[in-house]
Amino acid sequence: MPVPAAFADIAARVRNWGRWGPDDEVGTLNLVDSEARRRAAASVVSGRAFALGLPLSQSEGIQSGLVPGRDNPSRTMIHVNDPLSPDPEWICSSEDKVTMATQCATHWDALAHVSYGGMLYNGYPASSVTEAGAARCGIHRLGAVLSRGVLLDVARALGRDVLEPGHPISPGDLDAACELGRVAIEPGDIVLVRTGQMVHLAPERRDLIAYTWPSPGLTIETAEWFHTHDVAAVATDTLVFEVFPSPHEDLYLPVHLLHLVEMGLTQGQNFVLDPLAEDCADDGRYTFLLDATPLRLTDALGTPLNPVAVK
Amino acid sequence: MPVPAAFADIAARVRNWGRWGPDDEVGTLNLVDSEARRRAAASVVSGRAFALGLPLSQSEGIQSGLVPGRDNPSRTMIHVNDPLSPDPEWICSSEDKVTMATQCATHWDALAHVSYGGMLYNGYPASSVTEAGAARCGIHRLGAVLSRGVLLDVARALGRDVLEPGHPISPGDLDAACELGRVAIEPGDIVLVRTGQMVHLAPERRDLIAYTWPSPGLTIETAEWFHTHDVAAVATDTLVFEVFPSPHEDLYLPVHLLHLVEMGLTQGQNFVLDPLAEDCADDGRYTFLLDATPLRLTDALGTPLNPVAVK
Amino acid sequence: MPVPAAFADIAARVRNWGRWGPDDEVGTLNLVDSEARRRAAASVVSGRAFALGLPLSQSEGIQSGLVPGRDNPSRTMIHVNDPLSPDPEWICSSEDKVTMATQCATHWDALAHVSYGGMLYNGYPASSVTEAGAARCGIHRLGAVLSRGVLLDVARALGRDVLEPGHPISPGDLDAACELGRVAIEPGDIVLVRTGQMVHLAPERRDLIAYTWPSPGLTIETAEWFHTHDVAAVATDTLVFEVFPSPHEDLYLPVHLLHLVEMGLTQGQNFVLDPLAEDCADDGRYTFLLDATPLRLTDALGTPLNPVAVK
Amino acid sequence: MPVPAAFADIAARVRNWGRWGPDDEVGTLNLVDSEARRRAAASVVSGRAFALGLPLSQSEGIQSGLVPGRDNPSRTMIHVNDPLSPDPEWICSSEDKVTMATQCATHWDALAHVSYGGMLYNGYPASSVTEAGAARCGIHRLGAVLSRGVLLDVARALGRDVLEPGHPISPGDLDAACELGRVAIEPGDIVLVRTGQMVHLAPERRDLIAYTWPSPGLTIETAEWFHTHDVAAVATDTLVFEVFPSPHEDLYLPVHLLHLVEMGLTQGQNFVLDPLAEDCADDGRYTFLLDATPLRLTDALGTPLNPVAVK
């Protein structure tokens, strides 16, 4: 397939294949080293904490059917007050199990989530993903994902509660958010980009379609910005992550292709950023310790998350 | 049912019902405040990180059937290289879903996991757990669980690789581990107690029965020690958590009853502690930042975890 | 005396008299609280340390006689290898004493250093300074002076090794240095302003006159900038601190008047900033823990210093 | 001169000559590296600060004449409200100078302060100290002295407000203080040993002789303890530092000889420890960031200090 020139140019510039050796499966998370984790700890001043995960339940789920099979969480009971003692009312135990698509709510995509031209990140063949899962670049390869987090509150930087539907975020928008937060990205930082899109999930006006589509989001141009700044991972408060519908008619999820395939940049969706953003605006500090470590799901294509930011 | 006097005495002394108000559902995690989180950040010196979760897959699962229904994780594919573009080999996407008992591997128990005398922690009725889940004291109530962590390496303190099968850990054992680590517990700390039991999970000698039973573990006496030291949460590297079989023939999981019901102490099992313990022995530092935040599983009885320690 | 309108306007806007009560003697250092000190500790990442004091000796002194009586340090021996034991060559001890003007080298000015219109900071009478020293606003009032430090490298921000002789630093210059350092001033920060002027003290081209005069330096306009940003204290790498000669012919040390008398802003001179600036440029981090605590010289008008920055 | 065997044995065991190369002049302060400074920053939790210097003035001086020539500080005015403007009452300036023995109050001894057998630390000849000062091991060699500080409150550990006059501190006393503080010394820590002796300096009962002599203090046995624990520097709240009179009749200041000459251990006297000790007892935390950087007095035998502890 012919690839649009604008995309091909950026793809060539951001490609990290081989940068961390031929056997690498974690990409830009190699940038998180001991110094980055010390920098994370050093950004804790007030001690206030924010959990950034959406609730996980059938009724609170955000999947509306756009992606077939990506079902909302379903929890069922294994035991309900089952007696442990001869007297059935004395000592009892309850237990449950859960089923969910690994990308149904707040999550990281594994690098193996998408391929193009038959290739995953670092040149692994797309065929290494089978019914058994991702033999390469599965989510369990990441280990601890803890670094300094930086909130880029693009909505606030542009003077809005929520970006326009379909607003394509530009590198200039990211610079404006850096300026608002008076923050300089350092190699190994994890960037959280706020669009304000979760206004559509507020209980009183919950509208899953409006949340999903059309959505403001990241662009092929911001991929290059993340590359230049040596960002370790990126997450947003949207479902599709990138601007949707795409302005590139003949490409499909082009930002996914650049991030996951070319750069090996782990990307996250549906992060709850509004309370954190409120606190950052209050005290003017947009950096924090962020832990968003995946569940250790062997060979999985994604992972549910409840990331934590401590300021 | 008559309760043994030794148990009843301890139960009366450690009971926290009402301590944080009649509506409290998180118990001793109330002890984690902004200062505790600052203390956590302040314990980061080297920046080395350790992920403490077991792998989550069918074949690596540790459930041997002892607890009926507590199934190992099962992951299946939703999409395998499904084309997103008209050319079916150009742009493809893969995705999966997972089913698991919330307590099948490394996990926290929710306070609602057990009841006795018809009551949960803080006096909530056991009947508040139904087929819909835990209306009270569900795991999602906890929010961020991040504090200073302290490793109490009881095995090493007693000069062993692994404690004797069925060894009941005593308060003196915990004191010895404090002494080994030259550490003083502070209110709000999260304590990880190492028995060495995971030696039975080493690939070359994997023995799920030996891992499960008989097991060294915590005791009703250590419950009081945790109460006296105002510990916020406790986890071990064993499956049953408490010493098993129990030395108290007419009680069932008595440590669970004290921790979960009386104290409101969140407890965790199957934490991978050996690599962390190795590093602590190397540098003599047994304190660290610990994040073990639950998935936000609404009304759930437990949560899978991949806790992270940063030293 | 008539005061120029530009000065009077700024003086009225920056005056802090009464802001911290009628008995206050430390001025803007009230802005350094426990949170500011935690922020200081939180800015330590690499652990590299820089001592910012000039050497203290007669031959290395920087006083050229411009200020009569402000003599360079003079150290003399009290004992040289004096025997402590009957055998005069066995155990010996040596000891010395030092005489120096408190402002001869790297130092803080006490707020009592200057007065105008018969008044010190907070409205204390100038007559409270006598032959016995400063009964009000003496240097010993300050206690610990430790906060987050911020290097504003104005020279580098303007693309120069050293600012032009007599360059008056503008608020825009400070903004440019903030931009260079990607840093936002927070209330209670201590700001170090680098002009590059110490190039004149390099051994191979040591020129005390060129170091002293004409000198780039701070201005009445930057005083307002420090006020707006709630800076706790300010130091430079120059002898006079403010631009010299002054552009205001009929005022004498007008920046001293604004800082010390109107604002109660402790100001420092002759801080060695070049090695620190080099490190900041290398790693892009312009914030650090700064300790510049005075000697506890009762009722003194200044204090020698060897400030320490840890990054 | 014959040396007592007990002393000679310890001297042989603690000698650090050559340990940091033949040209070393700072001894055990080599143990303070970037990791130690990060550990210092990481010990800051509450942000409370304590300045540990005695007041510097003639009338508050603590020298009673025991050491001839070690005079208390004397400050005199250079200018008192000298006019800067034609109107002599408009703009005025005041300035002063100070003379003091470098060891008259709170201070570090330089390693060159004592010699024995004709040698300084690391084998430099005693004759390198002349009327010009210490050509080797002068105080200015130390640079930044900032590390984690540990308070060993021996008085409190032994259940006393102040140790008995002449109490010789034993290694067991230091262990008891570690136990009280639940703290483990790490290589590069700076240890502050509290005897409570400053009770004699309280204004209402100021007694310089009782403060000086007889004094509890450190011993040749504790020198070995500091060596074993790789302590970087040690200070006390006494004038003589070591127990005085000495239990060793035929040795003179034997602890000085071990610390300064054999070990190259920088030692400090007259540190104000009571308010810090009160705070440590209150919150149970005996570790802190400590900055006790010398003035940069070229070739000097000691330095006045106002050390700062931040908890």
Give a short summary of the structure.
The structure is a homotetramer. Chain A is α+β, with helices and mostly antiparallel strands and about 300 residues long.
How would you summarize the topology of this molecule?
The structure is a homotetramer of 311-residue chains.
Chain A: H1 5-14, H2 34-42, E1 49-51, E2 74-83, E3 91-101, E4 107-109, E5 114-116, E6 129-130, E7 133-134, E8 146-153, H3 154-157, H4 171-181, E9 190-194, H5 208-212, H6 220-228, E10 233-236, H7 254-263, E11 266-269, H8 274-283, E12 287-291, E13 302-304, E14 308-310
Parallel strand pairs in A: 8-9, 9-10, 10-11
Antiparallel strand pairs in A: 1-14, 2-3, 4-11, 4-13, 6-7, 8-12, 12-14
Instruction: Name the largest protein-protein interface in this structure.
Output: A-B, 95 and 95 residues
Order of helices and strands of chain A: HHEEEEEEEEHHEHHEHEHEEE
In angstroms, what is the radius of gyration of chain A?
A: 20 Å
Gap from first CA to last CA of chain A = 47 Å
According to DSSP, the number of beta strands of chain A is: 14
Shape of chain A: globular
Main beta-sheet strand count, sense and barrel state of chain A: 9 strands, mixed
Oligomer classification: homotetramer
Features:
14 strands; alpha+beta; globular; nine-stranded mixed β-sheet; 311 residues
Description:
The structure is a homotetramer of 311-residue chains. Chain A is α+β, with helices and mostly antiparallel strands and 311 residues long. Chain A is built from eight helices and 14 strands. Chain A has helices spanning 5-14, 34-42, 154-157, 171-181, 208-212, 220-228, 254-263, 274-283; strands spanning 49-51, 74-83, 91-101, 107-109, 114-116, 129-130, 133-134, 146-153, 190-194, 233-236, 266-269, 287-291, 302-304, 308-310. In chain A, the strands form three sheets. Chain A has a nine-stranded mixed sheet with strand order 1-14-12-8-9-10-11-4-13, sandwiched between helices. In chain A, a hairpin with a 2-residue loop joins strand 6 and strand 7 (133-134). In chain A, helix 1 runs parallel beside helix 6 and helix 1 packs parallel to helix 7 (254-263). Chain A is globular, with a radius of gyration of 20 Å. The mean pLDDT of chain A is 95. Chains A and B meet through helix 2, strand 1, strand 2, strand 3 and strand 5 of A and helix 2, strand 1, strand 2, strand 3 and strand 5 of B.
